[in-house]
């Protein structure tokens, strides 16, 4: 009888032990499943970062590798739209972040993230525009954007626009707020502003006048918002050219 009781107790102990081990196994499987889901979620979130991006620096380099010494592939134009693949990395030497991008012609490479505005639209300032720290009139600064400054519109809120770009009178890429009414998103306005900026940057007055006149004479640019402004620039440069010519004559005499 005593042996029978011992056998029953032993069987009960084995049953309880097996049940506990079974429960532990189920829990481990659930944790592994959760870890896989978490990794999948992280991957999805990384993919969601991809999208169209606007270049906010003229002649921005595209390189084969994400560093300043990488082989040069091509350069981008101010206001050009490219595709951000979602891949980014930090250069271990310069500590600067790079984005992998794809251009409209299929070329791919890496460019500095500072000079790209992801999920934004290209725009150009129609007139002098006050700069604000936030979408609030009380946050007005002492700086302004100038007519024909090309920027990327990052976000909008009511009648405000958050923009990223460099002011004509500024030194750095800034991300600030302006009144949305100051911005044009017309392709013809953006193109004319781009070429006018190149013309104004030329060394001599004569070269500037010639380049600006070519913009005025281009029928593809008819209807651009800046034509009157460009014509005023031409007259101003012509006047200054005459003053230089008069001074040169006096010197020769």
- Major sheet size, sense and barrel closure: 5 strands, antiparallel
User: How much of the polypeptide forms β-strand, as a percent range?
Assistant: 25-35%
* Second CATH tier, the architecture of the largest domain: Roll
User: Helicity, in percent?
Assistant: 25-40%
CATH superfamily of the largest domain: SH3 Domains
Work out the helix count. 4
Radius of gyration: 31 Å
Q: What distance lies between the first and last C-alpha atoms, to the nearest angstrom?
A: 139 Å
Please, what is the average pLDDT?
84
CATH topology of the largest domain: SH3 type barrels
Number of domains: 4
- Say how many strands there are: 14
Shape: globular
Strand order of the largest sheet: 6-5-4-1-7
Specify the structural class.
Answer: alpha+beta
- The low-confidence runs, each spanning 5 or more residues with pLDDT under 50, are 4-9, 13-46
CATH class of the largest domain: Mainly Beta
* Topology as a string of helices (H) and strands (E): HEEEEEEEEEEEEEEHHH
List the SSEs and their pairings.
Blueprint: H1 2-47, E1 51-55, E2 60-63, E3 72-76, E4 81-90, E5 97-102, E6 108-112, E7 116-118, E8 121-125, E9 129-132, E10 140-145, E11 150-157, E12 160-165, E13 174-179, E14 183-184, H2 187-200, H3 205-217, H4 227-252
Antiparallel strand pairs: 1-4, 1-7, 2-3, 4-5, 5-6, 8-11, 8-14, 9-10, 11-12, 12-13
Helix pairs in contact: 2-3, 3-4
Protein name: SH3 domain-containing protein
Overall description:
The protein is an alpha+beta fold and 253 residues long. The chain is built from 4 helices and 14 strands. It has 4 domains: 46 residues; 68 residues, SH3 Domains (SH3 type barrels), CATH 2.30.30; 64 residues, SH3 type barrels (Roll), CATH 2.30.30.40; 66 residues. The strands form 4 sheets. It has a 5-stranded antiparallel beta sheet, with no helix packed on it. Strand 9 and strand 10 form a beta hairpin. It is globular.
């Amino acid at each position: 009888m005593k042996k029978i009781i011992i056998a029953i107790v032993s069987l009960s102990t084995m049953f309880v032990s097996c049940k506990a081990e079974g429960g532990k196994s189920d829990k481990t499987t659930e944790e592994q499943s959760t870890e896989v889901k978490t990794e999948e979620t992280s991957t999805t979130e990384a993919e969601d970062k991809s999208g169209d991006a606007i270049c906010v620096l003229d002649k921005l380099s595209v390189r084969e590798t994400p560093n300043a010494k990488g082989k040069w592939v091509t350069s981008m134009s101010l206001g050009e739209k490219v595709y951000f693949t979602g891949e980014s990395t930090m250069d271990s030497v310069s500590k600067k972040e790079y984005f992998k991008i794809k251009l409209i012609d299929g070329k791919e490479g890496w460019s500095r993230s500072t000079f790209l505005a992801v999920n934004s639209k290209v725009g150009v300032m129609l007139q002098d525009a006050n700069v604000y720290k936030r979408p609030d009139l009380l946050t007005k600064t002492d700086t302004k954007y100038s007519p024909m400054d090309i920027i990327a519109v990052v976000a909008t809120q009511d009648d405000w626009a958050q923009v990223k770009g460099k002011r004509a009178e500024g030194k750095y890429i800034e991300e600030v707020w302006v009144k949305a009414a100051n911005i044009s998103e017309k392709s013809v306005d953006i193109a004319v502003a781009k070429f006018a900026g190149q013309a104004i940057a030329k060394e001599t007055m004569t070269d500037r006048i010639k380049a600006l006149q070519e913009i005025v004479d281009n029928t593809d640019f008819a209807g651009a918002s800046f034509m009157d402004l460009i014509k005023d620039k031409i007259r101003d440069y012509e006047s200054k050219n005459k003053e230089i010519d008069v001074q040169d004559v006096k010197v020769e005499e």
